[in-house]
Design a protein that fits this description.
Structural class: alpha/beta
Helix content: 40-55%
Distance between the termini: 44 Å
Shape: globular
Bound molecules: NADP nicotinamide-adenine-dinucleotide phosphate
Largest sheet: 6 strands, parallel
Strand order of the largest sheet: 1-11-8-7-5-6
Order of helices and strands: EHEHEHEHHHEHEHEEEEHEH
Radius of gyration: 19 Å
Number of helices: 10
Strand content: 15-25%
Length: 279
């Protein structure tokens, strides 16, 4: 039976540590505020935004909320970001994605000052990660590294296969695993022999965005399996990119959905906010 990697517990530990750190920073006269911008009222985005604001409150940093109508123009959004970039009281800026189709996501990401880019999506942040310099790291992959380290998973020298090459998960994940001295393979929709490649992985990270795509056949005996996927069915039940019932008996350790990678993303966002305060 696989050991469950408990993301809820680990994220709670991280938030506790951050709370103490924020209290100390406050004693030294350093305050933190995260600006959260949402354009439109997509229900899933509203839940994410609400949870992010709650997490800020929990660790003791302020949050400024900008709930803009769906009709907001790109110029209006860029003007707000420019103001927040200049505002010394704001340490972090987050635009909840996706933005409506008439707004260019890349232009928005590029407009956020790299010093306040707590999502770690700005090209400067990604570039810093690529060449091993200090910078904000995308929260989900950073959270996975914390899950592995705090569960005492040996990464150094291990074969890591990542399924997915998105800018927010797959690519930064690969760079982080490389930084930890894993031997990294990135796979995507053009990869041939995916099953065979995955079944060689000591650490398998599934960020494919397809419900229960990774079946037992993809998993090496005693592999560590990290499931990034989030899929909600008509009854609101969550499942991941991994077919848990088939993967769990083969894996040595596995993240569940829910309660695995999911809670880590907000914890690492809070980590980045505290980093922004310190900087
Ligand atoms: P994405 O942008 O849709 O990327 C999916 C990746 O999977 C792409 O690189 C795609 O390849 C690859 N892919 C698709 N079909 C494939 C196939 N048949 N074989 C191999 N690779 C295939 O998704 P994402 O944003 O990275 O997110 C991935 C999953 O994680 C989603 O379920 C998402 O909801 C979830 N997620 C969770 C969190 C969290 O906090 N837990 C955060 C972010 C995302 P191509 O590049 O060739 O198209």
């Amino acid at each position: 039976m696989a050991q469950i990697i408990d993301g809820k517990k680990i994220s709670a530990e991280i938030k506790e540590e951050l709370k103490e750190q924020v209290a100390q920073l406050k004693k030294d006269g350093i305050e933190g505020t995260l600006a959260v911008i949402q354009v439109g009222d997509d229900p899933a985005s509203s839940v994410y935004v609400r949870n992010k604001k709650k997490a800020c409150e929990y660790i003791g940093i302020g949050s400024k909320s900008y709930e803009l109508p769906e009709t907001t123009t790109q110029t209006e959004l860029l003007d707000l970001i420019a103001d927040l970039n200049q505002d010394d009281a704001v340490n972090g800026i987050l635009v909840q994605l996706p933005v409506p189709a008439h707004i260019d996501e890349k232009t928005i990401i590029n407009a956020i000052s790299p010093a306040k880019d707590v999502d770690g999506f700005h090209p400067e942040s990604v570039g810093a990660l690529t060449i091993g310099q200090k910078g904000f790291v995308s929260c989900t992959p950073a959270g996975i590294i914390e899950l592995l380290k705090r569960s005492n998973v040996e990464i150094d020298g291990k074969n890591c296969v990542i399924i997915g090459r998105s800018n927010i998960v797959g690519k930064p994940m690969a760079l982080l695993m490389l930084r930890e001295n894993a031997t990294v393979t990135i796979t995507h929709s053009h990869t041939q022999n995916l099953k065979e490649i995955c079944s060689r992985a000591d650490i398998l990270i599934a960020a494919v965005g397809k419900k229960e795509f990774i079946t037992g056949e993809y998993i090496k005996e005693n592999a560590v399996v990290i499931d990034v996927g989030i899929h909600r069915d008509e009854n609101n039940k969550l499942s991941g990119d991994v077919k848990y019932d088939e993967a769990e008996p083969k894996a040595s350790m596995i993240t569940p959905v829910p309660g695995g990678v999911g809670p880590m993303t907000i914890a690492m966002l809070m980590h980045n906010c505290v980093e922004a305060m310190i900087r």
